[in-house]
Write a structure and sequence with these properties.
Layout (H helix, E strand, L loop, with lengths): L6 H7 L4 E2 L2 E6 L4 H13 L7 E5 L5 E6 L2 E2 L2 H12 L4 E4 L1
Antiparallel strand pairs: 1-5, 2-4, 2-6, 3-4
Helix pairs in contact: 1-3, 2-3
Length: 94
């Protein structure tokens, strides 16, 4: 994934530790939402799912997931971007 924010940018625009918002758009098929949530939970080594919300397109083919996990460092943000970036069905990651 080429659009991962740099450590410098993340540290200049966010306070760590603290919440960080990820926006993920993908195809609704094949448990896409569950796979994204699981990737974030696993990367954070958390027992619970991160806080997230889901919106589906009117036709139901795509979903938008907004995740707001508590992040310890800019390195952790980059690791989550890398992990989500390889999930099949991904359209966009912001």
């Amino acid at each position: 994934m080429d659009n991962i924010p740099s450590i410098e940018l993340l540290e200049a625009t966010h306070t760590f530790p603290g919440p960080y918002t990820f926006k993920v758009i993908g195809h609704a098929a094949d448990d896409f939402v569950a796979r994204v949530v699981e990737a974030v939970r696993d990367e954070l080594q958390a027992g619970d799912d991160p806080v997230y919300g889901v919106r589906q397109t009117s036709g139901g083919a795509q979903v938008s997931i907004t995740l707001n996990p508590y992040i310890d460092s800019a390195d952790q943000v980059q690791a989550i971007y890398r992990r989500i970036g390889v999930i099949s069905g991904l359209i966009m990651l912001l």
